[in-house]
């Protein structure tokens, strides 16, 4: 997954297990599961990203999955969006020290970001209907919102479909991204494509 950039991934994992715990960004009980539950479950997003894509990770927290994707995929341009200063300070330090020149850290809420991206990602941020209202304005036409969900993915899709339809978007795929090394912690990638109103008439 990380190939020649594995040392960068290992350094980031070390910082999650140490600096991020001290700053209250990661719970101490999560340290033994940094790789299985956080690094590898975040890394499964990377293969879904188009070559050279612009990506925004909303509510990135300690950089999950955004920083992991940026490390695994140096061809993409990653924007980490996070409103809390203590989190963006940590992210700025990691980006600087690991020399990740394909990453920008933006301290803001989703609704304060005034640009669009090929892909918007989010992990453990909010239910899909609320997430759609926050994130879909940031997705360029033809782009996607990739939301990392757990076992409630199917229920959230059902609950959010009407809302997303009104927004002019269509839930078009739920992709199982269960990580082999962590079968107890299933993650499901729900992709929401941004389409035009005219296209929606043909879908409805």
pLDDT average, as an integer? 82
Structural class label: alpha/beta
Note the run of SSEs as H and E.
HHHEHEHEEHEHEEH
Spatially, the strands of the biggest sheet line up as 3-2-1-4-5-7-6
Uncertain stretches of 5 or more adjacent residues = 172-186, 196-204
Separation, N- and C-terminal Cα atoms: 38 Å
- Tally of separate helices: 8
Residues in helices, as a percent range: 25-40%
Instruction: Please count the beta strands (DSSP E, at least 2 residues each).
Output: 7
Largest sheet: 7 strands, mixed
Shape, principal axes of CA atoms: globular
Amount of beta strand: 15-25%
Radius of gyration: 16 Å
Write a brief caption for the model.
The protein is α/β, with parallel strands linked by helices and 204 residues long. The protein has eight helices and seven strands.
Description of the molecule:
By secondary structure, the chain is α/β, with parallel strands linked by helices. The chain is built from eight helices and seven strands. The protein has helices at 6-17, 19-22, 34-43, 66-72, 85-97, 128-135, 153-166, 197-203; strands spanning 54-58, 77-81, 103-106, 117-123, 139-149, 169-176, 188-194. The protein has a seven-stranded mixed β-sheet with strand order 3-2-1-4-5-7-6, with helices on both faces. Strand 4 (117-123), helix 6 and strand 5 form a beta-alpha-beta unit. Helix 6 packs across helix 7 (153-166). It is globular and about 45 Å long.
């Amino acid at each position: 997954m990380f190939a020649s950039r594995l040392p960068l991934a290992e350094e980031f994992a070390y910082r999650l297990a140490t600096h991020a715990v001290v700053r209250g960004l990661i719970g101490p009980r999560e340290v033994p599961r940094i790789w299985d539950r956080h690094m590898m479950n975040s890394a499964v997003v990377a293969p879904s990203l188009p070559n050279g894509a612009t990506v925004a990770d909303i509510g990135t927290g300690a950089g999950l999955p955004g920083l992991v994707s940026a490390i695994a995929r140096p061809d993409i341009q990653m924007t980490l969006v996070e409103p809390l200063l203590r989190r963006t300070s940590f992210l700025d330090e990691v980006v600087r020290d690991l020399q990740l020149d394909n990453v920008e850290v933006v301290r803001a809420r989703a609704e304060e970001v005034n640009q669009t991206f090929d892909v918007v990602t989010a992990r453990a941020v909010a239910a899909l209907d609320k997430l759609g209202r926050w994130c879909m304005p940031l997705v360029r036409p033809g782009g996607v919102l990739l939301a990392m969900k757990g076992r409630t993915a199917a229920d959230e899709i059902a609950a959010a479909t009407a809302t997303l339809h009104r927004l002019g978007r269509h839930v078009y795929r739920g992709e199982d991204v269960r990580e082999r090394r962590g079968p107890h912690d299933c993650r499901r990638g729900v992709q929401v494509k941004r389409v035009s109103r005219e296209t929606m008439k043909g879908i409805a």
